[in-house]
Amino acid sequence: MNDWILPDWPAPGNVRALSTTRAGGVSPTPYASMNLGNHVGDDPECVARNRDILAGATGARPLWLNQVHGTAIAVAGSAVPGAAADGSVSRLPGAACAVMTADCLPVLLCDRAGTVVAAAHAGWRGLCAGVIESAVAAMGVAPGEVLAWLGPAIGPEAFEVGAEVRQAFTEHDPEAALAFREREGRWLGDLYLLARQRLAVLGVAGTWGGGLCTFGDPERFYSFRRDGVTGRMASLVWLSD
Predict the structure, then answer these.
(1) pLDDT in tens, 23-64
(2) Which of 28, 31, 34 is nearest to 4 (CA)?
């Protein structure tokens, strides 16, 4: 069985979700082995095989996006594969919302009734610009009916940024200062806390997950900050047939 991360959230029974790790695929080093990104220099045939392995194991039909660190949300089941977007929404059984990461924060969403799901690729630029807000809005349900899960991302002890990143968040919300800690003239940022703050302001019912650091676990996770040339994991959420 693949080494998948299954969300610890109280989602309805017809909602399926997971985050992959780097295990279980066919890609060679430095992409070993379950690389799902076709834009990182890996053999395209290996990437295609890895995606087939994932689809075969889950029965889902992921919408693979061209992620650009923005806020656009595509519709799984009707959008063209490779659409330029950093999130997707789905109301069709089997049509999975998928985002690829290797330090950025994957945010999976569903409603309490199990009628709609969404996923957001929340790197700091997209998170700051409002990709989570866009994904929740695209779901078309009251935020109080939305549940969120935060997947593996670079942790607060490893995500070092400049003052301009902290300023971008605090200009939007002064409370974001709580997610930054100064260290030797730089700042350590907490993507998990920043996402929780955004979700709380929206009125999202509950948020689970967080705490799995991609940077600090090279055996299990890809990390762009750590390795530079590396693969991509995926986080998926879909409605079962």
Answers:
(1) 999 999 999 999 999 999 999 999 999 999 999 999 999 999
(2) 34
Residue 69 tokens, joined: 């660190």
Q: Is the backbone peptide bond immediately before 12 cis, with ω within 30 degrees of 0?
A: no
What's the pTM?
0.98
Residue 25 inside a domain? The answer is yes
* Residues 6+ positions from 188 with CB-CB distance below 8 Å: 156, 157, 158, 159, 160, 161, 180, 181, 182
Q: Which domain holds residue 46?
A: 15-157+206-239
Alpha-carbon distances of 236 from 49, 90, 98, 160, rounded to whole Å: 17, 11, 4, 27
Report the interhelical angle of 191-202 vs 131-139 (nearest 10°): 40
Q: Which is it for strands 105-111 and 117-122: parallel, antiparallel or unpaired? A: antiparallel
> Is residue 50 domain-resident?
yes
Residue 125 belongs to domain with CATH number:
3.60.140.10
Buried-state track 173-198, b at ≥16 Cβ within 10 A, e below 16? eeebeebbeeeeeebbbbbbbbbbbb
Number of domains in the chain: 1
pLDDT in tens, 69-104: 999 999 999 999 999 999 999 999 999 999 999 999
Question: 22 CB contacts (<8 Å, ≥6 apart)?
Answer: 32, 33, 34, 35, 220, 221, 222, 231, 233
Residues with Cβ within 8 Å of 217's Cβ and at least 6 positions away in sequence, in order, are none
